[in-house]
Amino acid sequence: MEQVLQKVWELATIYGIKLIFALLILFFGRLIAKLVTKIIERLMERSKIDPTIVRFVCSLTYIALIAFVIIAALGQLGIQTASFIAIVGAAGLAIGLALQGSLSNFAAGFLMIIFKPFKVGDYIEGAGVAGTVEEISIFTSILTSPDNKTIIVPNSKLTEGNIVNWTIKGTRRMDLIMGIGYSDDIDKARQVINNVLAEETRLLSTPEPLVAVIELGDSSVNFAVRPWVKTGDYWDVYFSLTEKLKKAFDANGISIPFPQRDVHIYEHKEG
């Protein structure tokens, strides 16, 4: 009986010490994980990295460090961790295969946040839709269409095709086609158009507006009218110029053989 008690005491002493060390590893490992995560967070914030990336990287770092601490604690207790790591790896692979689409969206969102092809407030086209960016998250981006519809787009759909950002440059070229009759005076029509453009104060002086004959159509001589405006003024100026040009042509006896339109109005459908 005395030998049994002695054996139990020896085992309790050995495993008690291991348990204490394992608990110490867990305690101090958790503190170190928090400290490392905090340092990374501060460094990234000083570098003015996007807050979404900061939160994600910090969370991922903390989880990885805690997993390492737990494995170290289990190893201190004498538990074979190789099989445990293999099980975790296999589970991770299975989860990864099951969440293939979500991981693709996640990777695309991460890249978009890093490279910033657009930001909140930009008007963009991509994945077959167009709208103003309201939110960029890890998995999806939320747009608001010109008619006030909320569009939720998976990030992978945006990154797998072309993205057109209409806002990022701050200025846009307006493409108008104005036609006159073959019997009308080209120089006079050009002067009328230039006069209307000169009166529009919202047009930019640089680059200079272009007014040139672009096509000899079946029933009209077509002018390309290409002034530049600030992005926010585009549609107000477009509507205003269309009306003013029509009135100016009428006042100067210049005929417009057919209804005019912006050559891009049906392409980007921006409101």
Molecular structure report:
This protein is an alpha+beta fold. The chain has three domains: 2-98, Helix Hairpins (Orthogonal Bundle); 118-165, SH3 type barrels (Roll); 171-268, Alpha-Beta Plaits (2-Layer Sandwich), CATH 3.30.70. Helices cover 54% and strands 18% of the residues. The protein is built from eight helices and ten strands. It has helices at 2-46, 51-76, 81-98, 100-115, 155-159, 186-199, 234-251, 265-268; strands at residues 123-126, 129-136, 140-144, 150-154, 164-165, 171-173, 176-180, 210-216, 221-226, 228-230. The strands form three sheets. The protein has a five-stranded antiparallel sheet. A hairpin with a 4-residue loop joins β8 and β9 (221-226). α1 packs antiparallel against α2 (51-76) and α6 crosses α7 (234-251). The longest helix is centred in the first third of the chain and has 45 residues, at 2-46. The protein is rod-shaped. The model is unreliable at 260-269 (pLDDT under 50).
